[in-house]
């Protein structure tokens, strides 16, 4: 029974500290605050800790906790005394606590900013990264409560715990006194601590996916007693693929005396299976899934592929069912693919896993594929291995994941796995939604620096089954940000496969220079025109004529590849008539041998009605369905085998030449490869965020704090905007209010002629085309006449809000914007003011912080950029000054996340210098940055 003192000791429970985490070995655990209700769990946990671990924790033999200890370790105020526990299945596996102390080392309250911290990890779970995860979370809690430094005393023999602290990456101080190691470290995140945290995140999430894709044993739950049905189909697919691990069929309706189903051991319950089960494929109705999850969790199953439907895709009731499913599975430390999933495939020879609804095992290869939609997954697998029609030939798959509602395992998790997967060279992803755009962009940038990442992103609203963070950014902006991160962003499944074929089979081009050769002049010219349209630099096509032999193709391709002025070669081929015309196999061998003799440059073929040539170039084995052998009264299904290369296939490591049925498809794929190659070269030298001596970060912070004290979200006044921007060296040209003609004349005298008269009412602001702006007013007479004309046209001065501003040097009007998006983070945008940006949407975007290289590319990324660089004989403007302005705005929003929106419009870029004529700034409390906090899984 709780006493009055107990109740007073309990402060409001901080539910936002609860989190699920992925551990070092790929398993999961839940971290939550310890409360007074955890006394029994704490005692049970402590009883399972070894005497040695207890000694390391208390520096003396401590066989059991006293009632006083239990009270102390379960009663916290969640401010000065905090305890967190890591749990699996609701039971403690580790604890951590901090106690705030003063300068004398005694218990204290705020403003004391130091705390002692101590851990205890159950021996069975040591080495899983539990303490490292707890340290990240207790440090975040401490920072939230105003604690800036931790101190820990550790026995020298406790090397594991010392390593936890020293490897965390925080700035620390170490001392030794009275036989104890004392560690003190600041809790402010550093570049090294963030790098350590993200490296641990990558290893943990990659291993969690690896456990799903490389299981040693698989149980299919929901195998029907009669042929047909989802469970029975998946069991057959696993068996026919040649899965090398232990396979089990489970159905609670099986008769007790049933030993096998299709040659696979049969069980009524997962608990009945002897030995471990790594992966369970769940194919039962949604209402029976909770009981299956409990069985799997109690048996120690590591992960689930849930094929069952009836979850978030079916409406609010299904969403609650999905939330309960994730919570239930995570409580046992299991990860989930699905629900409503199509399944997973791993073609590695030592795995051969087809835990999916795909009836055939894809050919082994080097492409990793992720699709949220099962239908799109089927289409991708089909296009990659079918013959004839579309992109012909076969390209193999390393691993395939169709995540369905992606309630747990998402594209981010699979990217972590593919990043260092030696079996995957190219990644293809179909994303109907992006749950965490900020994290996806970070992971995509790192992955793209190592291997190509091609993405099709859905344009419409996210499917009902997907939990997606709200974003205010248009689809085009998100696409631009993905390209900035190195993603090869395409629009259709066809383009996805086209690009994947080229990137999987050929080296990256060193530049945009393209040689074109073939036996059709018209097809060569069509290819030439498409190259120009895609921004490539083609040379004039070489026409070999329709009488060209295989040797003619070989010589021409060899010369083109050896020419240092070419970065890639497109070969065009049409059917030829005559005895001297090469056969498909002969021409394919001629092209392959020429490419092998001069390696290092990509070669593509555009063919017309040459199915045999495409087949020969691909050198693919058949993936036709297995034959059915019929005997008298019997039907025996011949097991499908993994396709093997034909006897005349090129040797291992040979670059296969992709063939395309249309010039535009080949050239589009080549253009994407050229842009990606350029990004890779630039990413090797990413640039830097420059420092400016005239930036006063502290002054800006003080001003922001004073302004926010007036309200939580506000657009600050013009004077305050000028003051804040001035702290970052951004000068806004003065504009003086002119409510009367006399005020306008006085303002003009103060500013000096010539001046501009502008109406700043919202419907007239920045609308020179409506007549609300009058420029180059040379004297008071012109000013008063312009003032009268504005009133006659648009109404009273109080409706127009006229201002007078000194004239800026003539140049190109541009607009600079920065916004903090809750999902994507801070984004800097640039374009030309007026119709180009407002009507045509011609804006370029970069994630903040922007480097000097990115600022340069940002200015040149818009379609109307030639207007800045002397188009049609005009005077080029001062783009270096414009780039500096962009960098200063980027620094402002990066240094001060309270600046949630900045608009500079217009910014006149003159031949010498820039003039900011208008500016607005909005302040608000900064949105949460989960990418800077401790590692967590998406909340449910």
Description:
- It is a single chain.
- With 940 residues, the protein is α/β, with parallel strands linked by helices.
- Helices cover 34% and strands 23% of the residues.
- It is built from 28 helices and 41 strands.
- The protein has an 8-stranded mixed sheet with strand order 1-2-3-4-5-6-8-7, with helices on both faces. The protein has a 7-stranded mixed sheet with strand order 11-12-10-9-13-14-15, with helices on both faces.
- Strand 39 (899-909) and strand 40 form a beta hairpin.
- The longest helix is centred in the N-terminal third of the chain and has 23 residues, at 191-213.
- Mean pLDDT is 87; it is low at 1-10, 387-393 and 620-653.
Helical amount = 25-40%
What's the pLDDT, averaged over the residues? 87
The tally of helices reads 28
The span between the termini is 32 Å
Largest sheet: 8 strands, mixed
Give the beta-strand count. 41
Low-confidence stretches: 1-10, 387-393, 620-653
Neighbour order of strands in the largest sheet:
1-2-3-4-5-6-8-7
Rg is 33 Å
Strand percentage: 15-25%
Shape: flat
Classify the secondary structure makeup into a structural class. Answer: alpha/beta
């Amino acid at each position: 029974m709780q006493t009055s003192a107990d109740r007073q000791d309990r402060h409001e429970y901080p539910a936002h500290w609860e989190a699920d985490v992925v551990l070092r070995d790929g398993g999961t655990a839940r971290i939550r605050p310890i409360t007074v209700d955890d006394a029994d769990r704490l005692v049970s946990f402590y009883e399972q800790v070894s005497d040695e671990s207890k000694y390391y924790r208390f520096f003396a033999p401590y066989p059991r906790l006293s009632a006083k200890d239990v009270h102390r370790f379960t009663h916290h105020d969640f401010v000065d005394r905090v305890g967190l526990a890591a749990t699996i299945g609701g039971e403690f596996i580790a604890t951590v606590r901090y106690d705030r102390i003063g300068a004398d080392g005694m218990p204290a309250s705020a403003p004391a900013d130091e705390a002692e911290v101590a851990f205890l990890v159950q021996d069975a779970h040591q080495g899983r990264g539990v303490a490292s995860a707890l340290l990240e979370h207790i440090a975040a809690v401490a920072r939230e409560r105003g604690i800036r430094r931790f101190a820990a005393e550790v026995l020298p023999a406790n090397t594991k715990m010392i390593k936890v602290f020293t490897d965390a990456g925080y700035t620390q101080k170490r001392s030794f006194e009275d036989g104890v190691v004392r560690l003190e470290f600041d809790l402010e995140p550093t570049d090294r601590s963030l790098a350590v945290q993200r490296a641990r995140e990558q290893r943990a999430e990659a291993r969690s996916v690896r456990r799903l894709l490389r299981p040693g044993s698989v149980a299919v739950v929901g195998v029907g007693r009669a042929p047909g049905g989802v469970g029975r189909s998946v069991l057959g697919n696993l068996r026919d693929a040649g899965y090398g691990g232990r396979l089990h069929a489970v159905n609670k309706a099986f008769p007790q005396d049933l030993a096998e189903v299709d040659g696979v051991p049969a069980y009524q319950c997962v608990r009945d299976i002897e030995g471990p089960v790594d992966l369970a494929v769940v194919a039962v109705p949604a209402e029976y899934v909770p009981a299956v999850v409990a069985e799997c969790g109690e048996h120690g199953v590591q992960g689930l592929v849930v094929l069952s439907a009836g979850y978030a895709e079916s409406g609010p009731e299904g969403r609650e069912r999905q939330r309960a499913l994730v919570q239930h599975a995570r409580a046992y430390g299991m990860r989930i693919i699905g629900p409503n999933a199509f399944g997973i495939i791993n073609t590695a020879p030592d795995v051969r896993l087809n835990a999916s609804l795909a009836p055939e095992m894809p050919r082994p290869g080097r492409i990793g594929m992720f699709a949220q939609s099962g239908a799109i997954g089927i289409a991708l697998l089909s296009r990659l291995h079918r013959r004839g029609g579309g992109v012909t030939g076969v390209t193999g798959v390393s691993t395939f994941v169709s995540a369905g509602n992606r309630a747990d395992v998402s594209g981010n998790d699979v990217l972590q796995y593919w990043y260092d997967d030696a079996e995957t060279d190219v990644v293809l992803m179909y994303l109907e939604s992006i749950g965490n755009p900020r994290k996806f962009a970070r992971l995509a940038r790192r992955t793209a620096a190592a291997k190509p990442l091609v993405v099709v992103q859905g344009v419409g609203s996210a499917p009902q089954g997907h939990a997606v963070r709200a974003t205010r950014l248009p689809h085009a902006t998100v696409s631009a940000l993905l390209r900035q991160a190195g993603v090869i962003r395409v629009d259709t499944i066809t383009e996805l496969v086209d690009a994947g074929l080229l990137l999987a089979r050929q080296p990256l081009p060193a530049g945009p220079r393209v040689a074109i050769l073939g036996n059709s002049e018209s097809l060569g010219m069509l290819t030439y025109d498409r190259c120009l349209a895609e921004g490539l630099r083609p040379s004039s096509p070489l026409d070999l004529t329709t009488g060209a032999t295989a040797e003619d193709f070989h010589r021409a391709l060899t010369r083109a590849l050896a020419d240092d002025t070419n970065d890639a070669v497109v070969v065009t081929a049409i059917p030829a008539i005559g005895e001297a015309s090469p056969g498909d196999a002969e021409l394919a061998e001629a092209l392959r041998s020429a490419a092998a003799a001069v390696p290092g440059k990509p070669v593509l073929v555009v063919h017309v009605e040459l199915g045999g040539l495409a087949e020969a170039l691909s050198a693919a084995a058949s993936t036709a369905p297995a034959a059915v052998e019929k005997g008298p009264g019997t039907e025996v299904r011949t097991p499908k085998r993994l396709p093997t290369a034909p006897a005349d296939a090129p040797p291992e490591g040979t670059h296969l030449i992709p063939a395309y049925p249309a010039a535009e498809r080949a050239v589009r794929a080549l253009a994407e490869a050229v842009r990606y190659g350029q990004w890779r070269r630039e990413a090797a030298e990413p640039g830097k965020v420059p420092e400016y001596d005239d930036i006063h970060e502290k002054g800006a912070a003080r001003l922001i704090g004073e302004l926010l004290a007036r309200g939580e979200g506000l657009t600050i006044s013009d004077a305050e905007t000028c003051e804040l921007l001035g702290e970052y060296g951004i000068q806004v040209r003065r504009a003086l209010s002119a409510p009367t003609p006399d005020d306008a004349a006085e303002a003009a005298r103060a500013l000096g002629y010539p001046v501009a008269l502008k109406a700043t009412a919202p419907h007239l602001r920045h609308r020179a085309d409506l007549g609300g702006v009058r420029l180059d007013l040379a004297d008071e007479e012109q000013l008063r006449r312009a003032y009268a004309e504005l009133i006659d046209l648009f109404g009273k001065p109080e409706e127009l809000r006229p201002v007078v501003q000194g004239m800026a040097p003539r140049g190109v009007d541009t607009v600079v914007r920065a916004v903090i998006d809750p999902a994507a983070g801070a984004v800097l945008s640039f374009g030309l003011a007026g119709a180009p940006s407002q009507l045509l949407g011609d804006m370029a975007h970069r994630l903040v912080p922007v480097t000097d290289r990115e600022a340069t590319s940002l200015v040149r990324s818009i379609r109307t950029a030639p207007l800045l660089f002397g188009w049609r004989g005009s005077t080029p403007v001062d783009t270096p000054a414009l780039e500096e302005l962009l960098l200063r705005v980027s620094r402002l929003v990066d240094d001060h996340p309270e600046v949630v929106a900045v608009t500079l419009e217009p910014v006149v870029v003159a031949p010498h210098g820039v003039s900011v004529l208008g500016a607005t700034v909005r302040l608000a409390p900064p949105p949460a940055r989960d990418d800077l906090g401790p590692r967590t899984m998406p909340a449910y």
